[in-house]
Each structure stands twice: as C-alpha cells, then as structure tokens.
C-alpha cells in the first residue's frame, strides 16, 4: 500500500501555510513515511505534519503507522478516536506503489489525468516531543477499484471536492465519514517509473517520468 507520495502542486497553490516543523516544507517528488508533509485540516490551509500517526503513548515515531485501513477505523482504538473529530486530507499530485513481475518489484506512479491534485483521506494526532508539539498523520487505504485491481489490492481513499468538504466537516459523524471511504470511481492513470526512486534521496521530476506504456481507466 502507498508508501510514497508526490506533493508539489499543493505547495505552489498559494494557500496559507501555518504551523512549524523542524525544517521548512519543500515540494517533493518522492516523499516517504516519517518525513514532513503538508496536511490540510481546513479548506485552503496547509499545516506541516509528520507522516506517521502518533498518539501520546507512541515511544518511537518511526514505529507510528503511516496508513490505516478503512475497514479497521471503527474497531481499532488507535484510529477510532481521530476518526470522530480529527480528520484531514493529504493533497497530492500522485502516489507510488510497487508491483511484482519477473521476480522483481517495480515502482509505479498513479495519478489523475483530469486534475493536478488528488485528496487522500487522512487522520491526525498531536504529538509532544520535549518542548515541541506537532501534528502527525496517517493516510487511509481502501480496496482497489476495478482499474487498479489489475495491479494492486489496495489504493488510497481518494475524495472529490464535495466528499472532502463532508470529510473535514465536524458535523459529519464517524459512521457517515466511513461511508465516504470507497474505491475511487473516477479515471486514473498509471505507469512504471525508474527503480532509482526506490531511494528516498532520489528527487526531481524524473521520479514520475514514464518508463514504457501508460495505462488509463
């Protein structure tokens, strides 16, 4: 399940950026778990967050879950409380995942051919580390839609603009919020990318450059 994201466009939209992080947020073509990303808890407002959901009892941030299965949100104590009132979205250009073929694992890039940004449903927690308090988050996954099921078993929980507004609203109950988390019904595209992006240090637009055929559906 998605372990890398591209977050470039959101940081170039001119939206307000509030909050502090150990280092300035920068656009990234290869953002991995336990790094800092831009989280959206309110419309047109971005805040820095650590990618890995960390309740107060977590001792090591690199053990915090960075994804949460939609099917477990109401039954897993770690996710049930933030589901009720601590919902957010991750605005991304696209995401990476890996497929197995010919005895190897190959990275693929997934994005929308119709819009420059996709919103992934997420949960957040505030974590205290010494004198520093900061946001932490995990993205939510759902079973793959018919198109991606040819490649993967799971995909990010993508939300359109109306669903995003409902997801972020404090008037939306947890049971109604769960109903929004469905396999994406819109068009997606995917293609294989260079294996160099397996390293989080590999950056730049070459991370998402197609290697071979582009699939749409």
Question: How would you describe this protein?
Answer:
By secondary structure, this protein is mainly beta. The chain has a single domain (4-216), classed as hypothetical protein yedk fold (Alpha-Beta Complex), CATH 3.90.1680. Helix content is 11%, strand content 39%. The protein is built from 3 helices and 15 strands. The protein has helices at 77-85, 161-168, 174-179, and strands spanning 4-7, 16-17, 28-31, 36-42, 45-51, 67-69, 87-92, 94-101, 104-111, 118-129, 132-143, 154-156, 158-159, 189-192, 214-216. The strands form 2 sheets. Strands 2, 4, 5, 6, 7, 10, 11, 12 and 13 form a 9-stranded mixed beta sheet that branches. A hairpin with a 2-residue loop joins strand 8 and strand 9 (104-111).
In short:
The chain is mainly beta and 217 residues long. 11% of the residues lie in helices and 39% in strands.
- The helix content, as a percent range, equals 10-25%
Shape by Cα distribution: globular
By CATH reckoning, the class would read Alpha Beta
Counting helices, strands and paired strands, the structural category is: mainly beta
Span of the ends, CA to CA = 19 Å
Give the SSE string.
EEEEEEHEEEEEEEHHEE
Mean model confidence by pLDDT: 93
CATH fold naming: hypothetical protein yedk fold
Biggest sheet, open or closed, and with what strands and sense? 9 strands, mixed
| Radius of gyration of CA atoms, rounded to a whole number | 17 Å
């Amino acid at each position: 399940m998605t372990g890398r994201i591209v977050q470039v466009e959101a940081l170039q939209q001119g939206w307000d950026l509030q909050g502090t992080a150990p280092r300035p947020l920068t656009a990234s073509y290869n953002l991995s778990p336990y790094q800092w990303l831009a989280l959206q808890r309110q419309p047109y407002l971005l805040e820095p967050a650590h990618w890995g959901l960390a309740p107060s009892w977590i001792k090591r941030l690199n053990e915090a879950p960075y994804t949460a299965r939609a099917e477990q949100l109401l039954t897993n104590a770690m996710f049930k409380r933030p589901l009720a009132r601590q919902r957010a979205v991750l605005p991304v250009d696209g995401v990476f995942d890996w497929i197995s073929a010919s005895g190897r694992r190959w990275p693929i890039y997934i994005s929308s051919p119709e819009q420059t940004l996709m919103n992934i449903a997420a949960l957040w927690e505030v974590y205290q580390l010494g004198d520093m308090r900061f946001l932490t988050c995990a993205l939510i996954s759902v079973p793959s839609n018919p198109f991606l099921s040819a490649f993967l078993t799971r995909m990010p929980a993508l939300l359109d603009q109306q669903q995003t507004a409902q997801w972020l609203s404090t008037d939306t109950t947890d049971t109604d919020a769960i109903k929004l988390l469905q396999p994406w019904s819109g068009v997606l595209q995917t293609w294989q990318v260079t294996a160099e992006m397996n390293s989080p240090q590999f950056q730049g637009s070459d991370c998402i450059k197609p290697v071979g055929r582009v699939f749409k559906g």
